[in-house]
Design a protein that fits this description.
This protein is of the alpha/beta class. The chain is built from 11 helices and 7 strands. A 7-stranded parallel β-sheet has the order 3-2-1-4-5-6-7, with helices on both faces. Strand 4, helix 5 and strand 5 form a beta-alpha-beta unit. The structure holds NADP nicotinamide-adenine-dinucleotide phosphate (NAP). GO terms for molecular function: oxidoreductase activity.
Amino acid sequence: MQVTTGVAAMAVGYAAFRYMSSPKSANHAYFDGKAVWVTGASSGIGKELCRQLVEKSKGVRLILSSRKEETLREVKEELVAAGARAKDVAIVTLDLGDKETLEAAVERAFKAFGSVDVLVNNAGISQRSLARMTSPVVYDRLMEVDYVGQVYLTQFYLHKMVETKDAEGHIVFISSVAGKIPVPFRSGYCAAKAALDAYASTIRIELELECRPIAVTVVSPGGVRTAVSKNALNKDGEAFGEADAVTAEGMAVDECVGQMIRGISNKVDDFLVCSSLERFAYRLFSYLPLRTATKTILPKYKKYLDATLAKVAS
Ligand SMILES: NC(=O)c1ccc[n+]([C@@H]2O[C@H](COP(=O)([O-])OP(=O)(O)OC[C@H]3O[C@@H](n4cnc5c(N)ncnc54)[C@H](OP(=O)(O)O)[C@@H]3O)[C@@H](O)[C@H]2O)c1
């Protein structure tokens, strides 16, 4: 009893500290005139981030990346219609699953505007399948796209930045609450995002140790209403094809991106963008024994999970 009260008091204290130290507003001027490279710019969070940067920051230059050149061209047209100058929007197609090509992609991105001030590692692919039924190749694919590809891009970005002594940079990872707590049907995705979090925390401390002016921000959204669930891999590595309840009832993408910009523009190390239930789950798994956290959260999430369980278990 005493232990539980102590843990609860620590959790409340820490939550209050996080709230007090969390930036209350976005600093849109942070992006003024900066070259910002957004991977996964063809859809969802990445596309909306580009739109809000054009709308709210002056003279921002954007490098749009994903696999689909035609879709990126359409996004560029939309950004120009929203006020961007065509010469300030470049397209660099890349496939994060094809790691041999990523050094050349970084070269092309740096060539677009001479440097890259902010790299937003946003592209990613999710999963909707029961672990016991999932083909091992699905784990390869999730690790390649959600972890290895992002690390390659970041490594080559760092090489370019340290070539220019004192170059100020900022590396952003769009991770997930699923990288911090277990979320059913996403075993490979949770593992890849957790690995990305660990990599980000380690390079942040190394960059500070070396006094390099390169910030590292991890943004972890909860469910957001994008095509992520539709594009997620099923047990055979095919598209899941529909929105599960966590995504369908998630945050609107414009609200998510508005909050993300608050964290990124204030160079927050680790920034959660999620519902109060997702934040509660995150706190449970941070402070309570795993068994207690699991037993507490399962009934609360049941309504979100049952329909998907019926689908993925058949
Ligand atoms: N929506 C959510 O509920 C949620 C929650 C937490 C975290 N996140 C994270 O947020 C990020 C963006 O997701 P989203 O919700 O915007 O999903 P989305 O609408 O499916 O967008 C995913 C983006 O990633 C790109 N992408 C996928 N595979 C790629 C590859 N192999 N190489 C290069 N680009 C690739 C896609 O572009 P192409 O298909 O054109 O290549 C697309 O632009 C992801 O990292 C995701 O894990 C999303």
